[in-house]
């Protein structure tokens, strides 16, 4: 296993690096959880 929250932190870090590399203004992170749950975040780069 891995520490709680590690997956989300790693995915967000990857998203931020890719947004900078592509010079993107917006990014979307989505992740599924157990029992049919899901979460997403829209990130704006200034």
From TrEMBL:
Residues 1-45 form the Thiolase C-terminal domain. It holds the Pfam family Thiolase_C. This is Thiolase C-terminal domain-containing protein. It comes from marine sediment metagenome. One of its GO terms (molecular function) is acyltransferase activity, transferring groups other than amino-acyl groups.
């Amino acid at each position: 296993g891995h520490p709680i929250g590690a997956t989300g932190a790693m995915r967000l870090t990857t998203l931020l690096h890719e947004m900078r590399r592509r010079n993107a203004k917006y990014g979307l992170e989505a992740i599924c959880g157990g029992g049919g749950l899901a979460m997403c975040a829209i990130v704006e780069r200034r």
